[in-house]
Amino acid sequence: MTAVGVPKTMAGVAEVEVVIAHRERATLRVGDVFLKIDGDQTRTDVEVEAMAMAPVPTPAVLWRRPPVLALAALPGTSLARLGRPSTASPAAWAAVGAAVRRLHDAPLPPWPGRSLDETAARLDAECEWLLANDVLPGDLVTRNRELAEAVFRPCTPVFTHGDLHVAHVFVDGDEVTGVLDWSEAARGDGLFDLAVLTMRHPERLADVVAGYGADVDLDVVRAWWSVRSLLAVRWLAEHGFDPFAPGYEVDVLRARM
């Protein structure tokens, strides 16, 4: 035994950190390796193929033995932590906007995404559930559902990440070093990516758009804030997360009032 009571054979073994875990999937970190465990191998197939296609930095795939995918850690730090203010510079946020634009300008992935009609049906079902179960005040749900209507308009699909929240984007100074978690990548509305990126940091929207470098309908971006939040409340609650936590989805919906 060592002085601190650890067997010598265990010296130097990295701790196992649970990054995220719920009923659908889990991500563990062991030293500089991330182990993603997903019961749905279709999601893992999408993730591996999307990372190979994306024109932005992504983690290196070390090995894959279903249901486990091993990825190398990215340099830098996440753009922000969920529920906390971002300490990244405006230039870093603009650099992320530029990276998102490169993704959206890339050739489309061969698999389709969810249509706007499907999104509308899901949204109506979630709003009915929120109201029927008194999860949120009626005026909060109704007003955000009205605001959400702006996303249902003709748009040209692009290569979207599909879950581009701040914890999935890594930066080092003002440089983007990588983007994680591509299992939701598909053809879709590019403004959805911008919305997920900024919904908890609305004060950074102008920086992201400046880096994105194209005409962006800000009303549609904000409408996606409402859509994303309304769709997420039940899922978060059922998977062990608190949508009422400061800065999370219910706060986003309240801010839209």
TrEMBL record:
Q: Which GO terms describe its molecular function?
A: transferase activity
Q: Which residues form the Aminoglycoside phosphotransferase domain?
A: 51-223
Q: Is the Zinc keyword given for this protein? A: no
Gene3D superfamilies associated with the record: 3.90.1200.10
- Write the record's keywords in alphabetical order, separated by commas: Transferase
Q: Does the keyword Transferase apply?
A: yes
Quote the protein name from its UniProt record.
Answer: Phosphotransferase enzyme family protein
